[in-house]
Amino acid sequence: KGRIAFWNEAARRIFGYDEPEARGKKLHELIVPQQYRVDFEKRMDVVGEAVEGPVIGQTLELAGLRKDGKEIVTEHSISGVSIDRNWHTICIVRDVTERKQFEERIRHLANYDSLTGLPNRMLFYDRLSQAINLAQRNRHELALLYLDLDRFKSVNDTRGHDAGDEVLKAAADRIQVQVRESDTVARVGGDEFAVILPKIVGTQDAAIVAGKIIDSLCSSFPPSDPAHGRIEIGASIGIAVFPTDGEDIDALVKAADAAMYKAKQSGNSLCFCAA
User: Fold this and answer.
1) What is the SS3 assignment for the chain?
2) Which one is predicted more confidently, 90 or 201?
3) Contact 225, 232 (CB under 8 A)
4) 157 is catalytic
5) Residue tagged active-site, from 150, 183, 191, 245
6) For position 275, what pLDDT does the model report?
7) In the prediction, which pLDDT does 39 show?
């Protein structure tokens, strides 16, 4: 009938309920948030419909709720067994919260830059691929901005790498402020960033964003050591537009990189890919 007949010490540690509190109640009342209850009960019913045991059941992962309201991640192995001609459903529950947190941490490290928290080169290429596919399907333009910080090497040389790291983090924050939520800002190298504008009406849109980014990075940065003066850098940005400057990832990146190199000759400037 789906009601708890036995609740061991491990279950008490996981969910915070003593056995007298748990016994007689339906399992989903104690451990499954509302949005998962329907699916959980259906799976329990499938096992419960069996007439002979032991029966190998199903394993599913659910968000569980402790008695104190804390949400955890639980793995449930559900099976059925006949004991003294009475049919029982056995649910073995594991608290896999730490494992899931570890897996999420690994995924984050694989896709995001550890210093700035921005998407790294691998995730950047994935986002750019998605943006190109969407632009092809909907027949609109997108822009790729390649950005290199000016005079950044001198910051590392004269102020040290700790100061350089602080500038990189602050620069990342300033760039993100200038773009839309739907845009992607990534760190693709030491002091190189990339910005994907997945939908633009024309090249002027990209130029406006690039200009705002340059202006924000030309404003001085506070020193990590108050004894030193403020830090002055800048930015050079190369812009490539899909599909004019390239219809695939490699072509667009190559075009944006070439345009950035040209902009770098002047410094604090933006440059479109040469026709």
Assistant:
1) CCECCCCCHHHHHHHCCCHHHHCCCEHHHHHCCHHHHHHHHHHHHHHHCCCCCCEEEEEEEEEEECCCCCEEEEEEEEEEEEECCEEEEEEEEEECHHHHHHHHHHHHHHHECCCCCCECHHHHHHHHHHHHHHHHHHCCEEEEEEEEEECHHHHHHHHCHHHHHHHHHHHHHHHHHCCCCCCEEEECCCCEEEEEEEEECCHHHHHHHHHHHHHHHHCCECCCCCCCCCECCEEEEEEEEECCCCCCHHHHHHHHHHHHHHHHCCCCCEEECCC
2) 201
3) no
4) no
5) 191
6) 54
7) 67
Q: CA-CA-CA-CA torsion for 131, 150, 164, 224, nearest 10 degrees?
A: -110
Per-residue confidence (pLDDT) for residue 30, from 0 to 100: 73
Q: Which single residue is written with the structure tokens 């995924």?
A: 107
Strand order in the sheet with 71-83: 55-65, 71-83, 86-95
Query: How many other CB atoms are there within 10 angstroms of residue 274's CB atom?
Result: 9
Average pLDDT over residues 54-75: 79
